[in-house]
Each structure stands twice: as C-alpha cells, then as structure tokens.
Amino acid sequence: MKKLCFIFFFTCGIAFSQNLEEAIYTAAETFISTKNETSLKLLTTQETTFKNQVKTKDEQLALVFLQCHKAYYLDEHSKLKEAIFTYEDALKRFNNNELSKLSDFDIIESCLKPLGNLYTKTGDYTNAVSTINQYIFLAEKSKNTKHQISGAINLAKLYQTIGKHETVLKIVDDAFKFSNSNTNQKALLQSIKASSLIALNKYEAASFSNNSVSKFENFKNNYILEFQKGNYENALTSFKKAKECIAEANFSKRELAKFYVEEAQLQFILKNNNIALTSLQKAIKLLIPNLKNDGLPTKTDLYAENTFIDIFDLQASIETNSKKALDSYNLSFYVSELLQENWTSQEAKILNETNNRIRSENCIELLYNMYNQTKNKAFLFEAFQYSESSKVSILKSINQKKKRLQQHPNDDLLLKEFQLIKNQEHYTNLIIREQLGNNQSQKINALSEKLTAISLELKALKPNIEKKYPERKNTYTLETVQKKLNKDKAVLVAYFYGKNTVYQFIISENDITVKSFNLTNETKQSIISFIHLFDDASIINNDISNYTNRAFNMFNLLKLNTISTYKNVVIIPDGLLNFIPFEALLSSKTNTTLFEKMPFIIKNKTIAYNSSVQFYLTENQKNNKTDLLGFFPVFENSNQKLTYSIDEAHAIEKEMTSTILMNAEASKENFLKEASNFGVLHLSTHASSGDFIIPANLSFHDDTMFLNELYSLDLNTNLVVLSACETGIGKLYKGEGAMSIARGFQYAGAENLVFTLWQINDLSTSQIMQSFYENYSDSKSAFFANQQSKIDYLKNETISNAKKSPYYWSSFVYYGKLEPAKSNNILFYIIFSIALGLIVLLLFLKYRKHDRNASRISP
Fold first, then answer.
1. Across the chain, what does the average pLDDT equal?
2. ∠ CA(345), CA(431), CA(699), 5° rounding?
3. Which of these, 821, 755, 806, lies nearest to 603 by C-alpha position?
4. Disulfide engineering: 226 pairs with which of 89, 234, 580, 786, CB 3.0-4.6 Å?
C-alpha cells in the first residue's frame, strides 16, 4: 500500500518541482527499506534540508509522507517526544497547505491516529481527545466507517485510562451500531466494554460481554473481575492462563511491559515481593533494552513514558529501605515532569495530578516515620516540600510566567506566549459553550483544530523561551519561610489532605512541627457533615448546641489549639478543608446560644488563606491604582433581584473613590473592557459553582462568564471582592483545588481576593460589605478589614441573634497577603501631636534645670 502511495505521488508531481519531490520520496523509500539508527540520522539531515527547499504543494505532500514514516519509526523505538514533534509538524504542514484537496493521502491512518495514541501514552489527554475527535469527524465526513470505529476504540481506551467508564460504555455502544465493523474491531470493543463494566461493579453484564472475546482477552477480563472482587488467588490463576495465550495479543514491547507491571502489582498484593520485583525488571528491560544492570535505572536512561511511573511507584512500595523508596518515588516524579514538558493545556495537567498526590502522600509518610525515628527536623521540612509540590501546580506555573513577563514586558517571545495562552482559554470556553448549546460537531471540530494549532505554536515557542530564560525551580528554605513569618508576626498552618491521612504542618518563626490524623470513614463524614451545616440558614439556628459541639470538635480535629499564642495566621487548606470556614470554629466549649458571646476563632485570630506557600512568599509588583470598579447588575424585574446590592454600592461610593456600574451598565462587555484599569474590583452579582457538565460561572446583566473565559484575562489588581454566592466553590480536583470563580481570578492575576464558600444572604452581605469598606478605607488592608467587618457584624445590636449565625458572616474568606493595617490619619496626627508636646516639655524642663544649676555656680 505504501509502495503504491509512493508510485502515485511520484507520478503525479508538478513538472518544475519533479526533482525535489522525487528526491524526498526516494529518501523516504530508502529509509523504509533499511530502518536503523544510521539511516534515521541520514533521514533527519535530509529532512532539515528539504524543509528549507519545499515550495509547491506536491513537495509539501512528499515531505508529509517522509515525516509520517520517520515518526512511526521513532514511536516504535520509544522516542516518543521526537515522534510526537514529527507527527505534529507533518499534520501542521498537511493542514496549512490544504493537501487534502490535492490527493487522497490517508492522513488519518498515517498521522492522526498514531498521534492521538501517542498523546494518550504520554498523558496529554486534552490533545488526545481533540485529535481523535478530529479524525472521527473527518471519517464521518468521508463515510469511512473503519476509521470511525477505530476512532471510537481509541477514544474509549482513553476515557478508560482516566476512569470515565460511563462515557466508555456510551462510545462502545454507539460503535456497535455500525454493521460493517470487522471481527477484530468487535472483539476489541467487547473487551473494552467488559473492562469498564467490571470497573463499575457490573459483574454479570461484564461476564456476558466477555463471552465473545478471544481466549487471551477472556482470561485477562476474568483476572480483572476477580481482582476487583478481591479474589486475588483466583485473579492470579486467570492471569497465568492469559499469560499462556499472550501470543494472541500481538503486544508491542510497551504493551508487554505494561502486562508485566500488572503481574507485579498482583504478586505484590499476594506478598510475593521477589516475584513482583522480577516482573518489574522484565518491564524495565523491555522499555530500556540497553540497560546493563539490574535495579533502578538513572535519570539519563529514562524518557517520557508513563509505564515507568507505575514501575517506580510499585518498586518504592516493595522497598523496605526508606531512602531507596524515596529514590524510586523521585524517579517517578522525574518521569512525570518529562511527560508534562509536552502538555500545553491545564486540563491535561489537572487530569494527571491524582497520581502525583498519592506519591506525595507516600513520601510524606516515609519522611514522617524517619523523623519519628531520628527526631531530625530536616525530614519534616522535606515532607512539607513534598506536600507543597503537589498543590496548585498550574496556578504556580502561570504565576511564574506572569512574573517573568512583568520583568521583561517588551519581549516578543513572552508576549506571543501569553497571547497564545489567552487564545487557548478563549477557544476552550467557546467549545464549552458550544457543547452546552447546539453541539454542532462541525463547529466543535473547527474549534478543536484551532486549539491544536495553538498547542503546536506553544510547543514551538517553548525551546526558545527556555534557552533565553532558563527555568529555575522555585526553591525555598525553612529559613526563608520563617523570615517571612517573623516579618508578618504570623504562624503558618498548612494541610495535606491525602487518601488515608491528613497532615498538618505548623511553621513558626523558630520551629516546625507536624501532626496527623487518619482519614477514616467516620472522620471524612465528620468533615463533610460540618460543611453541610452551612447549606441553609435554618440548619444551625434550629439546633445551636449541635453547631457549638461540632465547631469545637472540628477545632480539635484540625489541631488548632497549638497556635493559640499567635494573632496572625496563614492557613493553606487542602482537599475538603478548602470549604471549611476556619473563623467560625470554636476554640473552647460553650453552652451559650448567643452567637455574639461564642468563642469564635475570628475574635482573636486574623486569618489569611493561601493556596500554596509559594504564593505566600512571592512578592508581585503592586498596582499603583487604588480606585475601585464595581459591578452591580441588581437584576431588576426578575425573581433574582438583589435588592440590598444597591445599598452595598452606595456604601462603597461613600468610602472609596469608585466607578459604580449599575443595572445594564454592569455588562460583561464593560467588565472585559475596564477590569484591568482599576486597583480594586468589586462584583455584587449571582454566581454558580457549576456541576460535572457546566463549569463555575458569574452572571453579568447581559451575559454569563464561564470559568475558562476568566483564565484568558490578564489582571493586575490589588484586590478583588466577589460579593456573590459560591465564588470559592467548584468541582474539586486533588492538588489543584476547586475549579471556582475565585480560582479563575487567581489564574488571571488577582493576588488578593475576598470570596464566598456558600450561598449568601443579600441583606447580611450588604451589611458586612459596608463594614468591610469602612475598615478597608481606613486601614488599606483587606487582611484586617475582613476580620474587623465580621467582628463589627457580631457586635451590631440592631442585628438579631438568629442573623448572627456564622451562616450569615463566615462565608467570606480572604486569600492573600498579610498587609498590616495603616494607621488612621487623624489618630496619627493626635499621637504625633502628643509625642511632639512631650518632647517640647522634656526639653523645657531640661533647659530650666540647666539654668538653675548655672545660677548656683555663678560667682
């Protein structure tokens, strides 16, 4: 077939370009006939020359043919990064020159399909979905059912990899509707379906589905079924039978390596550690054929292949020496970093965070045990660094990029990178909107193609940027953290919410300690049920004693009694703890039912939350603008009218130099146009945390802004106040936190934010906001104003006890810097005048005494 393609292309070239076109095909055919490393080097040299010479479409098509064969070889020989780059260049060349109009070259089979599979192999799931959907669309358009079915198979495998088994079943069932699928395709679909049914605990349906697959697939699915049920001995029996039929599977080296890893995992569970290690060594030797020694390879031996991560993680679990186990985990982290080098979308990074989190927890546990044995506090700080390394990595990355651009604002490379990132989020937002609307596959495909093109441009820019600005890891020492805490007169309380354990790191100006508690079902339920106390105002008010007991118990569970001597507290929550209002916890038992009298933490602690220690330590350029821009859609003549939002606006105008946009003026268009021109943004509106389909969103008078649209903005505000419901709530991802509106503003560049953790009351919000801006106007510190506004609210005698429930005031949380309160000017002048008067008085008395002494000694 390839030979026929070559003859076709060779004979159909344009006359004046015949020699170059022929040379390209000849080079490709020569390589195909003698594939080895020597011929690859020659081909790469020729490819570079051809790239500088090609002009006509026929020449471009010949070069696409050459690149596809080169990429196929690179993939076969585990040079995945180079293979991806080559396929991407071929695809870009094919699309930019509209070569589909020139010939019937099968770009799906030759490029799109292997490229989609490579993205899946390397964990770049966003580009994988986009690429597979593109060739499914092309196959539908050309009525090529073979490619449609193979696209469905690869898409189902991808979703199976990331655990979306319901989606897998839908894709497979739709693929079965094609009547002309071949036997091999049907068997693959049946096997995929059986695996996902087992994962969903639908064992009977899985057994029925398993009857029509090959012997190997049958035994393998039986092994998975028994494994899922916890029948590990039976699982091993089925696995061995599958191993006897392995020739049927026609595995590549990589697939065979994965098979050995599965065997090792099963043997490890059965406590056959030596057999497990032997299987892992077989897997390593398959992936690194030239590796001479047994044991762990070095970093120089490794490449971007996610099977390595499974190998090293399991090897670490088997290892009895803590130091060697950490070495193994660190190799997993290293391979994870190699994989991430090729990812351009934050969605791909988010989907891969879970494994890093589990690995971090294991490293923390090892180091915590090493500390308990040695009492060496260096192990505690190392554990803290593992804890922080797996938090908000995407926010940290974009923050570093923005900081670099601030330092070099006129650099064309950095400006182009940022524009591409903005465009990427813009088109992602358009796809989301399209999927929520008419779901026109043609339009979605066109948007997907644009996203792919942006991804390729970002990858092309990356080497040049890294060469010009070598990326330094954001390292910090314990002394660095303690110096900052000493300056802020604060203590840092950072949590790591793991799969099995919650760790609490407390760092003060002169010490570091770690505490932990097990995440039992009872503990998890306690945390979840406490969060649900704030679902409705009546829950707390109907049983106040229940609340006081639970709030004190949560205080103890989170081990906050150890920071009693500190006034200023920096809290880095994690996991479900992101949704707990720490200020509303009680520091001691109480029998009172009067909320004003309760020992809330807010009364003696000023709390600033942060997403990561890196954000706490980073000093960004301060915006010199202090004016406020407020958005108040109000939603008159609707059942969502925000009546008290008007009072809120008037209170802000009284306290701040402000531009207030009310009703129709509070439009999304005006927000996009004006937001970056002010030092403070205030949005009093409706918001939603979204769900598994619809992302978090914010309402303007005329339109809705979805989360991804916020990602495309570039803000440098001193403060953002989100006076709207659930702005800190969204789909929770391990490590990255809640995909909330607040996160969108952080991504856009907002350093200090006030936002909400649940649905808020219009009247109480207005009252708290009035107090907040009174305090902020005087102190110029949102850190101070957030605490004081809540204390003022609790002390306000015009507010009833029921409305002083923490439901009404503790939803607002402050994320950002610990700005000290500036002294009120009048108070400053009073103190200055008194001090000056005292100095004058002292000088007067001193000189008077001097005069008296002089008179005594005069002749």
1. 88
2. 100
3. 806
4. 234
Q: 552 with 685, same domain? A: no
In 3D space, the residue among 405, 782, 399 whose CA is nearest the CA of residue 619 turns out to be: 399
Q: What's the pLDDT tens digit per position in 701-736?
A: 999 998 888 888 888 899 999 988 878 888 777 778
Q: With beta carbons less than 8 A apart as the criterion, state whether 498 and 364 touch.
A: yes
Per-residue pLDDT tens over the stretch 22-40: 999 999 999 999 999 999 9
Count up the domains in the chain and report the number: 4
Evaluate if residue 843 carries a pLDDT over 80: no
- Tell me the residue range of the domain where 537 lies: 491-613
pTM for this prediction: 0.86
d(CA 233, CA 715): 58
The residue assigned the tokens 């002169």 is 510
- Concatenating the DSSP letter of every residue in 185-202 gives HHHHHHHHHHHHHHHTT-
Gap between the Cα atoms of 715 and 722, Å rounded: 15
Same domain, 452 and 545: no
Contacts of 287 (CB under 8 A, 6+ apart): 78, 253, 254, 257, 305, 307, 308
What pLDDT is recorded for position 188? 85
Enter the DSSP assignment of 630: E
**Choice among 18-27, 175-184, 545-554 with the minimum mean pLDDT:** 175-184
What are residue 850's phi and psi, to 5 degrees? Answer: -60, -40
Sign of the C-alpha dihedral computed for residues 378, 383, 386 and 390 taken in this order: negative
Please identify, among 468, 500, 516, the residue that sits at the C-terminal boundary of a domain: 468
**Residue 131 to residue 153: CA distance in whole angstroms:** 14
